[in-house]
Specification:
The protein has 337 residues and is of the alpha/beta class. The chain has 2 domains: 237 residues, Aspartate Aminotransferase, domain 2; 84 residues, Aspartate Aminotransferase, domain 1, CATH 3.90.1150. The protein has 13 helices and 10 strands. Its cofactor is pyridoxal 5'-phosphate.
């Protein structure tokens, strides 16, 4: 049966695999000068704005880290919720690569608020040169808990950033799930609300590998090509990353895949409730369920199907649906539980 540990466990969508095979014919110019990379960039610009500057990288950690490196000097800092991936699950890569500190705030279901941003900012600048100078706010859409910022929430955060002279970075590894559940365009949650730089995902929604750093504020992309190369993220055969994004956007597969994962997650949540599992720690909005299980259930269930325990003290399980999760997979998991 399929795993519920992570959408990273899923394989590659058949349309994406076909695009990779098609990209393997004939020779193409290297380092992004091929026709597929140019087409993929055009398609991303159609989604996010014609002025966007787009750079493909291998993975999400690289996208986040190099995006922040483009925005920061070592005496500056990043404001983010304490649940953020950049502070918990990237081995300190942003700090190692930039020399900059992450200023952690509280979170509400994974989300930061304008008030907390301002508090973190004021707590630093009051000390002048004895503390860091906040320069970036980093948020995740959808959040690490699968919850979603509404466009009005994003607009309020953006307004606070602009007032304080901060850049707004978005980790969009599951941006598609958020857009699908809100039934809005990708631009409605990024360009339209004032996001400056976006880490645009792919691998959690059917791609084999590859993400993109998208500068929605194109002025910030100056010299990023050097940062990309120095950061070990300039692929010589760039077409194999880019080719995946062509059908992904051209055929609207991003929405199809995200809808499937989201819908299966709702089915899973309903099935869990029917089985008597009512302790959900976070709202089920995209493709994550955080549910409390008893220790004896966990021990037996994990032998049959992979999933993670997010908090061992409370036996809080994280169950994640993917683009290829089906009703039969949900039924099997519920039967195991």
């Amino acid at each position: 049966m399929k795993a519920f540990a992570s959408d990273n466990y899923a394989g590659v969508a058949p349309e994406i695999m076909a695009a990779l095979v098609a990209a393997n014919h004939e020779h193409q110019p290297s380092y992004g000068e091929d026709v597929m990379t140019k087409e993929a960039i055009d398609l991303i610009r159609q989604q996010l704005g014609g002025q966007a500057e787009v750079f493909f990288v291998y993975n999400g950690t690289a996208a986040n880290t190099l995006a922040l490196k483009a925005l920061l000097q070592s005496h500056e800092s990043v404001i983010c919720p304490d649940s953020a991936h950049i502070v918990n699950h990237e081995v300190g890569a942003p700090t190692a690569m930039t020399g900059s500190t992450c200023l952690k705030t509280a979170n509400i279901n994974g989300k930061i608020t304008p008030a907390w941003i301002e508090e973190a900012y004021r707590s630093q600048v009051r000390w002048g040169a004895h503390a860091t100078l906040p320069r970036v706010v980093s948020i995740t859409q959808a959040t690490e808990f699968g919850t979603v910022y509404q466009p009005k929430e994003l607009a309020a955060i953006s307004e606070t950033c602009k007032r304080l002279g901060l850049y707004l970075h978005m980790d969009g590894c599951r941006l598609y799930n958020a857009a699908a559940v809100l039934n809005v365009s990708l631009a409605a949650m990024t360009t339209d609300v004032g996001v400056d730089v976006l880490s645009l995902g792919g691998t959690k929604n059917g791609l084999m590998f590859g993400e993109a750093v998208v500068f929605l504020n194109p002025k910030l992309a100056e010299n990023f090509a050097y940062i990309q190369k120095q950061g070990l993220q300039l692929q010589s055969k760039m077409r194999f990353i880019a080719a995946q994004f062509v059908p992904f956007f051209k055929e609207n597969l991003w929405q199809k895949y995200a809808n499937q994962a989201n819908q299966m997650c709702q089915v899973l949540a309903e099935g869990l409730r029917a089985k008597g599992y009512h302790h959900f720690d976070y709202p089920v909005e995209t493709n994550h369920v955080f549910v409390r299980l008893s220790s004896d259930v966990v021990a037996k269930a994990q032998e049959a199907v992979p999933f993670y325990i997010f908090d061992e003290k409370t036996q809080l399980a994280r169950l994640v649906t993917s683009f290829d999760t089906g009703l039969a997979d949900i039924d099997k998991l519920l039967a195991v539980l």
